[in-house]
Every structure is written in C-alpha cells, then in structure tokens.
Amino acid sequence: MKQRDQCRLGAQRLITRERLSHHRKSLWRREAPVFCRCRRLGTMQFFGGSEISPSPPVPTATGNNVHMMYIFNRSGVCLFYREWNRPLRTLNPQQDHKLMFGLLFSLKSFTAKMDPTSADKGNLGVPQLPGQGCSFHSFRTNTYKLSFTETPSGIKIILVTHPRTGDLRDSLKYIYNLYVEYAVRNPLYSPGTTLRCELFNTSLDQYVRSIS
Fold it and tell me: What keywords are annotated for this sequence in UniProt (predicted)?
C-alpha cells in the first residue's frame, strides 16, 4: 500500500513539472522580443510589427506552396493570371488585378520615399522607372508571402505563396525566361494582350511544383 502511494505521488510530481515547463515555454514565445533590421534592397516582412531581412526562412511547408501568379505590363494590364492553391477564390478577377497592381505601385513609391540613403526621393505617387531608386523584393504576412520582380521593359511578375517560402528571386527570373520564350519570341502573340499558350502553362505548372 505504501509503495503504491509513493508511485502515485511520483507520477503527480512529474505531471506538475511538465505543466510548469510547458507554461514557461508559452510565456517565452509570447514575450520574445521582435528584432528589426533595415537594409536597402532588402525583403519587407510584416509580423504585426515590421522586419526587413534579406534572408527569408527556407521552405518548410508541405503540399503546394504557390497560391497564384500575376504578370503585368508597365501600363498595369494583367497579361497572365494563374491559380494553383488559392483557398479563397475572388468573385471579381478584374478588381483583384487592379488591387494587386495598385499595391505594387504604392509599395514601390513608399519604399523609395523611405530610403534613408538617398536625398533624391521624389514624391509619393509619382511613377518610377524600372530599377530606379530603392526597390523591394517581397513582403510577408502571417498567412501569405508576396514575391515580386520587375524587368527593364516594365514587365512585373508576382508570386503569392505560403508565408514560409524562401527567397524566390531566382524563381521569378526563371519564370520571366519562360515568358520570353513563349510570349516575346512567339510570332503569334500580340504584345499587350492576354497570354494564352498551353506550352507556357505546362512549363510553368511543372516548375511551380518544384517550388512546393
């Protein structure tokens, strides 16, 4: 009887110790400080507060990490849009495209205006030439990450992915090469119109699966 009571007392102490340990870890996670680092041409990341980091975490999510992709020309015309894993579909694609292009326009202007290394900042809302001034590559929320690149000709490519997806600048360059191969060099394609090419879609789908 005495031995049984001792075993029961030991088990209760072990459970109490594990609960205290779990409680301390939870407090540490909630109270952990947020470190902010600023760097020109860095990656914009938002986690309630803000952090600018050139080194996003490596992909660790499972399944298809890519939600959707946009391609715009310099005038804001959406030349291409494709979804892979978008849980919430938009009811108005045209409005969705306008919002995305407007977001990019505003972020480009804002990041240039906030550049602490240049005296020639221009005015907010004034269009910038591709590659002019400070630029951004991506931003991150708790539910998605947006990666962006712009070519000298004004073509803008946007990938919206899982928030823990890593640096996609090389991936965006590869996708632009696909666009050049199947659109720019295609004698049947009219510049400024929607890109409809099954070879481009197939090549893009294959590459996007490798990002996941």
Answer: Endoplasmic reticulum, ER-Golgi transport, Golgi apparatus, Transport
* Shared-domain flag, residues 116 and 23: no
**Cβ contacts of residue 87 below 8 Å, gap of 6+?**
67
Beta-carbon count within 10 A of 119 CB: 5
Q: Does residue 38 form part of some domain?
A: no
- Give the DSSP letter of residue 182: I
DSSP β-bridge partners for residue 44: 52
Rounding to the nearest 10 degrees, give the CA dihedral for residues 28, 31, 32, 37.
180
- Residue count of the chain: 212
Beta strand segments in the chain, E: 43-47, 49-53, 66-72, 78-83, 138-140, 145-150, 156-161
CA–CA distance, 160 with 139 (Å, rounded to integer): 10
Measured CA to CA, the distance from residue 182 to residue 144 in angstroms comes to 29
Q: Both tokens of residue 114?
A: 């906030």
Q: What are the tens digits of pLDDT across the range 104-142?
A: 888 887 777 777 776 665 655 555 666 555 577 888 999
Helix, strand, or coil here: 160? strand
